[in-house]
Specification:
heterodimer, A: 440 residues, alpha/beta, D-Maltodextrin-Binding Protein, domain 2, 5-stranded mixed beta sheet, 17 helices, 14 strands, 47% helix, B: 295 residues, mainly alpha, MetI-like fold, 14 helices, 0% strand, flat
């Protein structure tokens, strides 16, 4: 073969290769664009980064099963812890790039501005017929008579405790505040943290304060009315509750440096059996089935009512309960109908409520009693009993019932109170000042 | 070429990309911040113009703002009067050691600077833990149990605890800059001083420190800016708590913007923040006005 012929052959081959590859590329693009026409991408923003236990596991399970049932749907989950979630959410709002479906807290301090500004798509009541939502549970997901979100769980506060530690140190499970103080002293003496609490997160301290107000007064409305009327500083019950809280701190009722402990730290302390009690909400129901915790802990974990106060008017069955977390669909979503379908699929009672309850992952926002099988964990049974025996419930907790800034400032003041940076009297005076500024 | 470069239009054309980037990335956001600082914007919906209301509120009634500024200035002072003298002493020591030991020490001191702040902050939270933390354990071991504290969980010790973390985290940078400065001082000067009878500490006070003046100035400036901008360590350890005992400006404006939904107010804080930074720097430059030594 002459040099010239070789050149020609090589050139022809190169040109052919080029044509084939270009053709292939075009074909590929065509098929890709054909398939993207059919593929629906849904962006899902969640506050449940742990996808292996509790509600995160349930959420992921339902997302996976939806994608399996709808192969053309691709759901991209972005999951962050509560505080980072709130910040990221704000960034999405500010840049007008809302995810198609997102988690919301059904509280005026979080969801009301979102609904008012029209960021959430309306959910027609007809669409959730037969879903088992109580009307009261939808109240904080509504604005101007229209529904914009669905609650996913029933939140209520209980006192978790470790049976093993109570037996070991022969301490009676406290039913009164004085018994709680005495129990704290015994555990302290034995090097066990009495109550694990995440004081760095602040919100829990504000909730605990309300718990004491309710146990002192027996009146669920008292704290809201006092703030609405801006008559806080002279209220003797509010003062007594603040003193009770400081008293609990003074006897060493919480772990050392509890003010600097975040949620993970407090949870670990209790789960590692280094704390006898844990003041937290019903969303911890999954602790008894969490594969990451020891068998000993899972055997010992139990829950009870928060103790009553001798001389107080509150009953043990006056509990703090509300419907906190839930989901909403973005009003500006390009795949609004698909996102709505996904939401309705997930929240169908045979999925979120039934699977979540029967696997011990959640206390649902819908009626769950009909899904009880008798195989529930001790915690599930106890939480069901506590909630079903409630004679009064609080609804949205006090710090969340007003403006976002009221929440931030009130929670900081509660932290200052337990850190003894301010006296109970000063605390109330400051809350009153705050109410005058923030509550219209 | 000279003709081309002296043409005003060409100069403008060449400067334009940089100018555009500066305008859109720095100048425009600053102007926007000033404007938003004069609104009651919550970050959601439309902003309402309220004039200087936010600024008045911050200056006259916001005690946390002043506390945050005070804490930032305290951190700056801790950098300047505690961290830097020690860093300079260690830099001199490393410079004098020489050989392999010099490299080893240089690396050891710089390690905290290359570890992410998240990691070192978590580490310090563990060290400070009152129950299993190393600090209280050491105090126990030394029979100094009475000195044990709740560190980050007590209003009396939270701020100093955070300041210690910040000083530890930034120590390597301060040391490295001094060390580089020391390497630039010719050995002949020391030899000449020794011949003239200077010994020991005098060598450092009369030669090292004066000749390091420009380096000290730069290092102090960086430290002060760092102190005023302090955010991540505070956020990761105390988040400004207990209450606002260890609050710093950047963290405070972040809380106002993202927790309280007060974007307008947070922008007003950021404007005052910039003014405070500029004021501190101008003041500092005035204090530090001095002649540079030639060598």
């Amino acid at each position: 073969m002459s040099k010239k012929a070789l050149k020609v052959v090589v050139s022809v081959m190169l040109i052919a290769a080029l044509i084939v590859s270009v053709f292939g590329l075009v074909q590929g693009n065509l098929t890709a664009s054909a398939s993207t026409q059919k593929t629906v991408k849904i962006k899902f923003l969640s506050n449940l980064p742990d996808r292996t236990s509790n509600q995160g596991k349930l959420e992921q399970m339902l997302i996976d099963s939806y994608m399996k049932a709808n192969p053309n749907v691709k759901i991209e989950v972005e999951a962050l812890q509560d505080e980072p979630y709130k910040q990221k959410f704000k960034v999405y709002v500010a840049t007008n790039q809302m995810p198609d479906i997102f988690m919301v807290w059904g509280q005026p301090s979080f969801f009301l501005p979102v609904m008012k500004a029209g960021y959430a798509a309306e959910i027609k009541l007809d669409q959730i017929k037969g879903y088992g939502f109580k009307t009261s549970s939808l109240k904080d997901f509504m604005y101007n008579g229209k529904l914009y979100g669905l609650p996913r769980n029933t939140d209520f506060m209980v006192l978790y405790y470790n049976k093993g530690l109570f037996n070991k140190y022969k301490v009676k499970v406290p039913t009164t505040f004085n018994e709680l103080l005495n129990a704290a002293k015994v555990f302290r003496k034995n090097g066990i943290a009495p109550i694990a609490i995440n004081g760095k997160d602040k919100w829990i301290l504000a909730i605990l304060y309300q718990e004491l107000v309710v146990k002192e007064s027996g009146d669920q409305k008292l704290i809201y009315d006092a703030i609405s009327k801006k008559s806080v500083s002279k209220n003797q019950i509010l003062l007594k509750a603040a003193k009770d809280l400081v008293n609990l701190v003074n006897v060493g009722g919480f772990q050392d440096a509890f003010v600097a402990a975040d949620y993970g730290a407090a949870n670990n302390l209790f789960a590692q059996e280094k704390a006898a009690m844990y003041y937290m909400g019903s969303w911890e129901v999954g602790m008894a089935a969490n594969p990451n915790f020891s068998e000993s802990f899972k055997k010992n974990v139990d829950a009870t009512y928060f103790p009553i106060i001798s001389g107080g008017k509150g009953k043990k069955t006056d509990i703090l309960a509300w419907h906190g977390g839930g989901y909403a669909v973005s009003a500006s979503s390009k795949v609004k109908n698909e996102a709505m379908k996904l939401l309705l699929y997930m929240m169908h009672p045979t999925r979120w409520a039934k699977i979540g309850w029967q696997q011990g992952l959640v206390v649902p926002g819908q009626n769950w009693e009909k899904f009880m099988t008798g195989k529930e964990t001790v915690l599930q049974k106890k939480l069901t009993q506590i909630f079903s025996s409630a004679t009064s419930v609080s609804g949205t907790v006090w710090q969340d019932a007003f403006t976002p800034n009221f929440k931030t400032e009130a929670e900081t003041l509660c932290q200052m109170l337990v850190a003894k940076a301010i006296t109970p009297e000063k605390f109330l005076a400051k809350i009153e000042e705050l109410a005058k500024l923030e509550v219209k | 070429m000279h003709k081309v470069l002296s043409d005003k239009r060409t100069i403008l054309l060449l400067v334009l990309p940089g100018l555009l980037i500066y305008t859109f990335a720095i100048l425009f956001p600053i102007i926007l911040s000033v404007y938003l600082g004069m609104t009651d914007w919550s970050g959601i919906g439309r902003p309402n113009f309220i004039g200087l209301e936010n600024f008045k509120k911050i200056i006259f009634t916001d005690t946390t703002f002043w506390k945050s500024l005070r804490n930032a200035i305290l951190l700056a002072l801790a950098y300047v009067f505690v961290q830097h003298p020690i860093a300079l002493a260690f830099a001199i020591f490393i410079d004098k050691v020489g050989g392999r030991a010099e490299k080893v020490f240089r690396t050891i001191f710089f390690i905290p600077c290359v570890i992410p702040v998240v990691v070192t902050s978590r580490m310090w939270v563990s060290l400070y833990d009152p129950q299993y933390g190393l600090i209280n354990k050491i105090l126990d071991f030394l029979h100094l149990g009475f000195l044990k504290q709740q560190w980050l969980g007590d209003t009396k010790t939270a701020l100093i605890s955070v300041i210690i973390i910040c000083m530890w985290q930034g120590f390597g940078w301060a040391l490295l800059i001094y060390y580089a400065g020391l390497k630039g001082i010719p050995e002949e000067l020391y030899e000449a001083a020794r011949i003239d009878g200077a010994t020991g500490v005098k060598l450092y006070t009369k030669i090292t420190v004066p000749l390091l003046q420009p380096v000290i100035k730069v290092n102090f400036t960086i430290a002060i800016i760092y102190a005023l901008k302090q955010m991540e360590t505070v956020y990761l350890t105390t988040n400004g708590g207990p209450g606002d005992a260890s609050q710093f400006l950047a963290n405070y404006l972040y809380i106002r913007a993202f927790n309280s939904y007060q974007y307008g107010y947070a922008n007003a804080i950021s404007v005052l923040f910039v003014i405070a930074c500029l004021a501190v720097n101008v003041l500092f430059q005035k204090i530090f006005k001095s002649e540079n030594y030639e060598f």
